[in-house]
Amino acid sequence: MIRARLVLAIAVGLCLVGRWAMANDPASLPSSKVCSFQSSGFAERGGVPPAPNVITMDNDGGWCGHLSVSVAGHSFGFGAPMHLVRQPAHGQVSIAVVGGGTRIFYKPDAGFTGSDSFSVMNETLNIVMPYNVVVTQ
């Protein structure tokens, strides 16, 4: 009886974790119909900061972003842990480490058009990557 309850509790826990992961994985979120990404790359430690990466998208309720798999010439077989160091003023950012890289996605606030920006820190390399976002209607 105790063993059956333990197995049930573990199964319920795994289901909840799976549902949380799916809800928080940007790949499972709706994509913007117009979405493009232009990379400028990272600067090496102590180097000249890179030009911002550029995301161009429509504000149609979807997300737009990219999968980062190579940073400063270093190729990772896993996603590099990253976090926001500067929040966007007119939207939200979702960062998810996935098998072969790190997904970085942006979604503008409802009704927003114009320019926004944010910055992401690669914790493995201690490098900041700036993003500019252009949102059209």
Describe this structure in words.
It is a single chain. The chain has 137 residues and is α+β, with helices and mostly antiparallel strands. It has one domain (31-136): Immunoglobulin-like. It has one helix and ten strands. It has one helix spanning 2-24; strands spanning 35-38, 53-58, 64-68, 70-71, 74-75, 82-86, 91-98, 101-108, 114-122, 127-136. It has a five-stranded mixed sheet with strand order 1-2-10-9-6, with no helix packed on it. Strands 3-8-7 form a three-stranded antiparallel sheet, with no helix packed on it. A two-stranded antiparallel sheet has the order 4-5. Strand 4 and strand 5 (74-75) form a beta hairpin. The longest helix is centred in the N-terminal third of the chain and has 23 residues, at 2-24. The protein is globular, with a radius of gyration of 18 Å. Residues 6-24 have low confidence and may be disordered.
* Neighbour order of strands in the largest sheet: 1-2-10-9-6
Low-confidence parts lasting 5 or more residues at pLDDT below 50? 6-24
What is the global morphology?
globular
Termini separation comes to: 59 Å
Describe the main β-sheet briefly: 5 strands, mixed
What top-tier CATH class fits best?
Answer: Mainly Beta
CATH topology: Immunoglobulin-like
Question: How many beta-strand elements?
Answer: 10
Averaging pLDDT over every residue, what do you get? Answer: 75
Q: What would CATH call the architecture?
A: Sandwich
- Fraction of helical residues: 10-25%
Order of helices and strands: HEEEEEEEEEE
Our count of domains comes out at 1
